[in-house]
Amino acid sequence: MKQNNIKTVYSGIGGYEKMEQIVETFYGYVKENPVLIPLFPDDLTETAHKQKLFLTQFFGGPRLYEEERGHPMLRRRHLPFPITPSARDAWLACMNLALVEHEVEEPYYTEMMERMTLTANHMMNTPES
Length: 129
Prior knowledge:
The chain is built from 7 helices and no strands. By secondary structure, the chain is an all-alpha fold. Keywords: Heme, Iron, Metal-binding, Transport.
């Protein structure tokens, strides 16, 4: 979403501070989600840190994730975890709540949800049992 004078999603929502708030809120919802919490470690500090770096880069900000961790290789990094359609839906629902809570405005809200939905679909690796 970067053409001439159009802002990136990252700058349009308010940069790193806003991304940090969204991710912290998101993981608050994850902690309460019975579908998601078994997929995550007890301490979400490092997980949230990596998510902030990734989403910053993913939405047009500095390439912080690559600088610290190398290429994202998302699917490969997520293969050890059983990501079912229910887990995908729960993840997207938590992210939606975080974006709404932090009043991410259009067109950024739609752009973020569309791109994260495509990515979440790609991460699925386990059918529902």
